[in-house]
Amino acid sequence: MNWAVLLRSGVENLQNHGASLQKRLRSLRRRLLLLLAVIGPGLITSNVDNDAGGITVYTQAGAQYGYALLWALIPMTIALYVTEEMCARMGVVTGKGLSDLIREEFGFRPTFFVMITGFFVDLANVVAEFAGVAAAMQIFHVSKYVAVPLAAILVWILVIQGTYRQVEVIFLFACVLYLSYVFSAVLAKPDWLIAAKHTVIPNVHLDSGYLVMLTGLIGTTIAPWQFFYLQAGFVEKKVGPRQYPQARADVIFGSVSCMVIVFFIIVCTAATLYASGHRNINDAAMAAQALIPLAGKWAGTLFAFGLLNASLFAASILPLSTAHVICEGLGFEAGLDHKFTEAPIFYWLYTVLIVVGAGVVLLPRAPLWKILIFSQVGNGIWLPVVVIFILLLVNRRDLMGEYVNTMTYNIVAWVTAIGMIVLTLILTYTVMF
Amino acid sequence: MELYATELMGVKTYDVQGNYVGRVREFFIEPAEAPNRISHFLLSRGHFQPLVAKHNQVASVSDGKIRLNVGEKALEIYQPNESWLAVQKDLLDQQIIDTRGRKVVRVNDLDLAEQRSNGNVELRLTQVDVGLPGAIRRLLQGVVPSKVVRKLQSRLPQRSIRWEFVNLIEPDPLRRVKLRITHEKLEDLHPADLADIMEELSASERQSIIASLDEQTAAAVLGELDARLTTQIVEDLDPEKAADILEEMAPDAAADVLADLSKETSEELLEEMPGHEAKEVRELLEFDRATAGGMMNTKFVFVSESATREEVLEWMRKQDQSFDQLDAVVLLDHKAQYSGVVPVVRILLAAPDEPLAGLKMEPLVSLAPEADAKEVFQLFDKYNLRTLTVVDKDNRPIGAIAVDDVVSHLLKR
Asked: Which domain holds residue A381?
């Protein structure tokens, strides 16, 4: 064989190889792009669960019981995934929002009451978020009279001026900022081995304080409004049934990452506050304050920054989601892709929620504590209603076709739903009395 | 007096002897008979079998009471019928298309009008209420006396749509035929408006509308839709129908659609398309979309530079196609190479026997198909172009980029 032929066949071989590699890379890139195009609603929704109220509860759980409650995170992840996945599936298959579906299948009156309840419960939640902003900024020595109005304006402008895609990018960035909790946990130098052990092996105490804390943990993580937001997110992104696997991946990724953050918050407070005996923590801001002498200035600052980010994040999503739900259900134009003049009621509702939500925090003797309780009680009462609507809808073959729940999935979903409902009712009862 | 569907639901019905027959649970329109007449009333009483009163069996509708002009024995037992449009199930709370306002709206209530004929009363659907009055009625009916509700609603702004302008959305094609739902009214809308409407709907509803439009309208709508939706729709269409629609699209638009599909689907559709069109689209698919080749259209008008104005116009008149979007004509020299561009306005103003060579725009600009999109934008901006010719290595024109291609590219970035 002469050299030229050998060389040529060698080059051809190399070219073929290169081409197949390129092809594989291209298909990988295509798949990644598909995923990136869909990802967002699940990730954002789950992370918003870690809002001001949530972080307070996680902090308390770590400060009071150390690592002992970590095992609850795995069942919580499953519960979060199971419920969110049903909404994602409905959004993707029907192309309609949750309140749209409730309206079409259950009529005007049930929809109206779901929405009115939603409005007041969400308003209370918004107040709680702005209270979180105020508390976090206090650690940075900024008065709430400066911080809260600024936050309200920021949030309002963000959503009014941006398109859905832009806003989503900002929200996704906010998800990344939750990593500040990872850093502050690392700075707290916890015993990772014990933490890992407690995550996998349940450690159930039977004293009432422990049980209340456990219920609180689960109750704050799954909030009713998030289902509406999640489903609307997929509808607004025009994710179709073919992209359902990507949508599901988004939901899985979201629920897991949400719980990972919770893990780090609990670990951080367990390693510092619990270990040193600071076990009575009233709110997350107090925890951040207490962290400074124990784990250094950075740990405390990062912790407070995480609280600020979470509160701001939730404060921009909650009013948005609420305005969406109400307009969709009542048949008004809704959505960020409309201009102010095209969807006036949508934007007005949004504005009112922010202005009232921030305004209440600014009242000199605002009963913030009572509002926080009201928001938790409200979530607790509203959640069963919403979850039952979801389960009824997702089992309708005329809506979902081949995508209805399977028998096994239904069992898991109903058990989760009933468990969640019982726990939130217990939580509601304990905070009320 | 105006009647509302909400008020009629649950009304007590009596037969000709004054015996109670049952309450109205639903009423139907039979579009095959009359497009807006309430044809049947579903009456139910406890656990008895529900009965149906026909439109000619109703003597009067008043004071929250319906009187029939026959005895209970004359009524038929209710059998579900797919070709009846159920007011409560199919209309209330559902989305419809307002073809006049060009948007998707949700039905709150229905307005009905009485029409007396010999011995009976017919109800006709006049308009669909999509505003606050309907919402208030739905909320308060049965809780607050209807007199109070009527007073309350008269102060609210009305938002209703005449029934003639309502286009129903029904994803099931069989049911659509039975209910005589056509999308003729939608075909009269501007494709861009129709595209906006379709973005509001769910996937199956979109699919049903595209499937029932004629190919030309469907092609125009697909060209206006969001790229992601276009991909979804084409993927779910029957390949033959999809190929027919793509054929109607401009080759560059068709190439854009195909480029977003998977390799297999795109190949399958190209196989279905006639050879000539498929070849053009295939050539365009070779180019990266962010280059001049990816933006150009291979359908463009070119003439010899020695042709006179009259000859060119004569030729154009004979062509069986629309030149609505034509901005300029590309000139070729005797070697069939690119020699310049003449704007349509210059042709319009020229003397009949003037050769086009003398009307050329200065300076002579063109680009290779590999040129970056950015170069295209810069040339358009610098020379205020409306058409840019793309030439191959031998300086032969292979396509033209129009200003609207540039605009849509800039918007997508």
From this structure: 40-432
Q: Is the ipTM of this complex over 0.90?
A: no
CB contact under 8 A, B108 and A240: no
Residues of B in contact with A109 (CB under 8 A): 138-139
Is the pLDDT reported for residue A417 higher than 70? yes
Q: Which of B95, B136, B202, B264 to mutate to test the interface with A (most CBs of A within 10 A)?
A: B202
Pick from B106, B139, B229: CB nearest A238: B229
Query: Which of B251, B286, B321 represents a domain boundary (last residue)?
Result: B286
Check residue A7 and give its pLDDT.
53
Tokens of B231: 């991909």
Facing residue for A108 by CB, picked from B95, B138, B232: B138
CATH assignment at residue B400: 3.10.580.10
Query: Which residue in chain A is spatially nearest to B232 when comparing CA positions?
Result: A240
Residue A6 has pLDDT above 60, yes or no: no
Q: Reply yes or no on whether the pLDDT at A158 is more than 80.
A: no
CATH number for the domain spanning A382: value is 1.20.1740.10
Confidence bin at B172 (pLDDT 50/70/90) = confident
Judge whether B92 is closer than 8 Å to chain A, CB to CB.
Answer: yes
Cβ A238–B130 below 8 Å, yes or no? no
| CB A237, CB A173: distance < 8 Å | no
Angle at A399 between CA A93 and CA A391, to 5 degrees: 90
Spatial distance between the Cα atoms of A49 and A40, rounded to a whole number of angstroms: 14
Residue B117, SS3 per DSSP: strand
Query: Are A108 and B228 in contact (CB < 8 Å)?
Result: no
Query: Is there a cis peptide before residue A224, judged by omega within 30 degrees of 0?
Result: no
Tell me whether residue A4 is in a domain: no
Give mean pLDDT, residues A236-258: 85
Whether residues B143 and B11 share a domain: the answer is yes
Its domain, for residue B223, covers 187-286
Give per-residue pLDDT as tens, B355-394: 888 888 888 888 888 888 888 898 888 888 888 899 888 8
Structure tokens at A130: 């702005």
Are B235 and B201 found together in one domain? yes
Interface contact flag, A96 B202, Cβ < 8 Å: yes
Interface of B with A in 181-220 (CB under 8 A): 199, 201-206
Mean of the pLDDT values across residues A64-83? 84
Mutate to test the interface with B, among A108, A337, A342, A400 (most CBs of B within 10 A): A108
Name residue B168's beta-bridge partners.
Answer: B96
Segment A325-368, tens digit of pLDDT: 888 888 777 776 677 777 788 888 888 999 998 888 888 877 77
Alpha-carbon span A119 to B148, nearest angstrom: 26
Shared domain for B259 and B122, answered yes or no, is no
| Whole-number Å distance between alpha carbons of B179 and B126 | 18
Integer Cα distance of B390 and A294 in angstroms: 69
Residue B130 in domain = yes
